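$ fold --in a.seq
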Amino acid sequence: MTDQTDDQTDAAPRRRGRPRSAPRRDSSLSTRDEILAAASALFGAQGYTDTTTRQIADAVGIKQASLYYHFADKSQILRSLLKGTVAPSVRFADWLRGGQAGDVDAAAALAALARYDLDGLLRDRWNLHVVYRLLDIAETEFTETRENQQALRRHYRELSAAVLEQQGVDAKALADTDLELVFGLVEGIISQRQWGDAGTRADYADAVVRGCLRLVHVPEPEIGGAVATGESYVARFRAEHDEA
């Protein structure tokens, strides 16, 4: 679900940095991505406020001046990390429900949103969804991400209500918290990253999609078909938007 690239407008003015103080720790990453990875780990471990650019530079093995070649300050690093943590799933939900996908079945649409969202969470190499929960992130840095998260929760609530109505349940009589159980189940993949392992993660995600449909009373014999149709929606969106 995450887009780790950043616009050139977010980059600091180009200037020559100093040589590395230590060998590269992960040659598969660019220096910029190494900085983002180190910052994400430090923010998650000790908070945003207590993390300094010197600590981030030291974790990467570069001088502070080299870090400033890529980012003007710590705030810009945080904005680059937060950018796109939730927005891709919101764009997919907007496409799914805005008529661009045609006439979609509510249960299949809910399965599709869960599948797309879970894929993004599983591909999040820096666990950014942990970072954006940090209590000491300034509100001005977090506003766009918070708005996107609220929009995503609303999509989950409304799709859950639509499926429940199809199953004969009066969704209007339910509290918003009841309708957000599906969203909470999907977000739970974050904790699975801590106690689970890469070998079982995909299977767990598949079980979560099925579990989402069970929460909104989709009959067991219909779950497989809804999941398959949902996956076709995801594949179509990715093809139309050139997503890998």
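$ fold --in b.seq
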Amino acid sequence: MYKLLISLLLLCSLAVNAKQTHLLTGVVASAENQLVTAPKSDNWQVQIQWMADEGSIVQKGDLVVVFDAGGIQAQVEQSEEQLEMEKLELHQIEMRLQQAVTVAQGRFRLAQIMVEKTKVQASIPDGEISAYEKGKHVIAYERSIVEKVKAEESYKLRLEEQKVGIEKQKIQIIKLTENIAYKKSQLSKMSVVAEVTGPVSHMMHPHMPGDKIATGMNVRVSWKVLLVQAQSSYQVKTWVHELDASRIDFDTAEVTLSLDAYPNKEYTGKILNMSSQSEQKTEWSNSAYYLIDLGFSEEVVNDIYPGMSVRVKLSSDGAEIAGVSNHD
């Protein structure tokens, strides 16, 4: 009787302390990496002229992707030619308008002189000249005043035309200069160099399952094209099914990592980060998965590289029956 009771207690204890184990597949990745995406262009897509080979090791500063920039280069050259023409036009406008201002200024000064001259003649006292001559001088004085007003208005108008005309042409030049700078900025993004030293991975084509982005393909703006991962700061990325994620206590979970290339060596791992939102993985199933970043808790003695496959074992307090979450 006592033996039976002890056996039941032991079974209950084992059931309570049983750990739920999830087996996942992961891949070695670097926390320091460079993701190359298709740059903006005037068209809705751009062609890849050249890419570094899949799996090749590139050094920081090496060329990794070249996009077709022929159209943008032609636009830059055309805009630069137009800019030179607009600058020449500005010089001609400045000369033409300055000449008009000079002519109007001369007319205004002459009108001022005529006013002073006719004023003196019109101010001759009565009796010194005939009434007829006096009347002629007064009329000439009044006319000179009217001519002065007209000349002054014409001078001010020419000054305003000069200011507006030159400013308008300068604005046109500024617009062209900014457009050229923008095009050159686009042009600089058509040739991408590596920001880190490490292996190259071509990204999967978003609309052609099983195919990767390759040289000669037309890609749309912001498509993921290529990934360069640094040969340091290694992590393991894995995905867990949304149903299994609800059963795992990630705060207390024990992580064991085993590289497929070195199956006889296991490493203790740790959970670094888990995505807050699940993502659909149509290549696996119609279900959603959470991305988990794992780190090595001990020094890795084997040679590892980004892209190597990893077996991940997550153990946490839970039900007596183990769950399996393979998706390879």
